[in-house]
From TrEMBL:
Residues 7-197 form the DhaL domain. Keywords: Lipid-binding. One of its GO terms (biological process) is glycerol metabolic process. This is DAK2 domain protein. The keyword GTP-binding does not apply. It comes from Salisediminibacterium beveridgei. It comes from the Bacteria.
Length: 599
């Protein structure tokens, strides 16, 4: 083959994709850089599956190449996945400009693609996939003097690429210690083998039967000796504003983390970074365009699950559970973030959007923030990974009446292993949800059995209570939590209600009436009545951007109960979006069941 056309490239790409998918487990097993989380095979296989599923050949080869580029942007995950994505996107762009490639143009395409992959990485290091890519191109340039056949050059360069792969063992200390080659580089060798063999494969073949998109038993094989400098493996996909280029942020982002890879293609950009401040990264990126997708993995919690777990039962909550982060860490509680759309960009609640910056966005925006439940795939992936390390899982979630999160998690449990995963409707939210999670964590750490923990949780749910004093019903009306008629009455009479949750988990106006500006005083009277009837076992104080109110609340609650709050914290953005800035809430676990009927 002396000329490469679009169809030839397409067939080679599909063959290379299959080769990587076939070696997914092998690549997972040798993954120790940049973080030894054993998922390079998963990430590369996911990218290739996305390309094969979405990049079907059609009569317009240009359209096919454009589709492949989009699949690369959406499907790239992890350090190696991002590098591969930039490599393939650059090849596609080159082919869009040229219908056919002779040897000279083919080498130009490969050279340009490797340079683009190198430039995507903030700090390129020798001994990685980039080293093997560069050695491969140089070998082809040398071999091209002896032949005009593109196939022949590819075959002759393959041994040199393999030699470069073996050298990676001695180029980085981490590879010498573990006696392995770079997993991304090994993946590239398999990819080259597929290009050379050019197997007869179809894009619409059932690739999921060959390699699951979910984690398998080799996934996240983190090494016990590894130390994490940065906690969160973060990825963002951005629809860029006209003329914007995310690579201009590369130097600035280096202050926030490492393993930075940036991929650009026309109006789309994607960023991969290991960081301790994913919310700061998101804030930086929204200035460049609209964030349409993001994924953040907590590598610290993954590591603890494998090497430092405190109990055989995993506890999972969603981000509507308001428990201080340090408490989540102390009790190794796993969190599923809800999605929150603010000013057209999508965030992960409590992860890429924190309370402080959220209220600034809320004040600046005209539209009500929109929350949505996590994807089924993301929950299934979490459950499957947890069951590799734990005997069972308790998954506790925000009221089913207020969110679809419980339903998604219930479906995920049914798909994975319903006998080992127990999904619970808390019938509440925020601080009351946090108290239920805390009590559950304590029972787990006492060594209680799976069934005993489930029974204890069933007993606590009817004992939970939360009262919220809001400054305005505007956000609750927009979010559908309060009817427009109730809101109109409150506005006309300048009344501020106390909002609560009934026994089924629906929001209600406490006492079936409105209170005037002294709503906090009325709320304390309601709590005194609750304490007199049922007794308050534990309570917590929460605020929506109004920490200055907490001292007054604590003083009042100490007078009522004679005890200090278990903790004081801010509510999550997904809760604050409905309560509105300035809201104050008090959540309790009672000594006796409470009908929570607003009486």
């Amino acid at each position: 083959m002396e000329v490469l056309n679009h169809r030839h490239f397409y067939e080679m790409l599909m063959s290379g994709a299959h080769e990587i998918i076939d070696h997914q487990k092998e690549l997972n097993a040798i993954n120790v850089f940049p973080v030894a989380d054993g998922d390079t095979g998963n990430n590369l296989a996911y990218l290739m599956q996305m390309i094969m599923r979405e990049g079907r050949w059609n009569d317009s080869s240009i359209e096919t190449l454009e589709t492949i580029k989009k699949a690369c942007m959406r499907g790239s995950r992890g350090n190696s996945g991002m590098i591969f994505s930039q490599f393939i996107i650059t090849m596609c762009n080159f082919l869009i400009r040229h219908q056919e490639l002779n040897m000279e143009k083919f080498l130009d395409m490969c050279d340009e693609s490797v340079e683009s992959a190198v430039s995507a990485v903030s700090i390129p290091e020798e001994g990685t996939v980039l080293t093997v890519m560069k050695a491969w191109v140089e070998s082809m340039k040398q071999e091209s003097s002896t032949t005009t056949s593109i196939e022949a050059v590819l075959k002759k360069s393959y041994p040199e690429a393999n030699l470069a792969l073996e050298k990676t063992k001695s180029q980085m200390e981490v590879f010498r210690i573990h006696d392995v080659v770079d997993a991304g580089a090994k993946g590239f060798i398999h990819f080259l083998h597929g290009l050379i063999e050019r197997k007869d494969v179809k894009a619409d073949e059932d690739t999921e039967s060959r390699s699951s998109l979910l984690l398998d038993e080799t996934a996240h094989v983190m090494h016990e000796s590894d130390e994490l400098t940065f906690r969160y493996c973060s990825e963002f996909l951005i629809e860029l504003k006209n003329g914007e280029d995310i690579t201009s942020l590369k130097a600035h982002m280096a202050d926030f983390g490492d393993s930075i890879v940036m991929v650009n293609d026309n109006d789309l950009g994607k960023v991969h970074i290991h960081t301790n401040e994913p919310a700061d990264i998101a804030e930086m990126l929204v200035k460049k365009g609209k964030v349409v997708y993001q994924k953040v993995e907590d590598m610290k919690r993954q590591y603890e699950s494998i090497y430092q777990r405190k109990a055989p039962i995993a506890l999972v909550v969603d981000s509507a559970c308001d428990l201080p982060k340090e408490w989540m860490d102390e009790h190794q509680i796993h969190m599923i973030p809800l999605n929150l759309e603010v000013n057209e960009s999508t965030y992960l609640d409590k992860v890429t959007l924190e309370a402080g910056s959220f209220y600034e966005l809320l004040d600046a925006g005209t539209d009500q923030p929109k929350s949505s439940q996590p994807s089924l795939l993301s929950v299934e992936t979490l459950y499957q990974s947890l069951l590799m390390q734990y005997d069972s899982v308790i998954s506790l979630h925000v009221s089913q009446k207020l969110s679809g999160t419980f339903d998604v998690c219930q479906k995920a449990a049914e798909n994975i292993d319903p006998s080992r995963i127990h999904v619970v409707n808390s019938k509440t939210l925020s601080g009351a949800f946090g108290l239920l999670a805390y009590e559950t964590a304590r029972e787990i750490e006492k060594g209680k059995s799976f069934d005993e923990v489930k029974e204890a949780l069933r007993e606590w749910i009817p004992k939970s209570e939360i009262l919220v004093s809001v400054k305005t019903l505007k956000h609750m009306i927009r979010g559908g939590r309060v009817s427009p008629l109730q809101g109109k009455v409150a506005r006309l009479l300048n009344m501020k209600p106390i909002v609560s949750i009934d026994s089924e988990g629906n929001s209600l106006l406490y006492g079936k009436t409105f209170f005037s500006s002294s709503s906090l005083g009325k709320m304390y009277k309601q709590i005194q009545s609750i304490h007199d009837q049922h007794g308050i076992h534990e309570y917590v104080l929460l605020h929506a951007g109004s920490p200055e109110m907490m001292a007054e609340c604590q003083e009042a609650m100490e007078r009522i109960t004679g005890s200090e709050p278990l903790y004081t914290t801010s509510v999550s953005p997904v809760i604050g979006g409905n309560a509105g800035k300035g809201a104050v809430s008090i959540a309790m676990i009672l000594k006796e069941d409470n009908l929570r009927n607003g009486a």
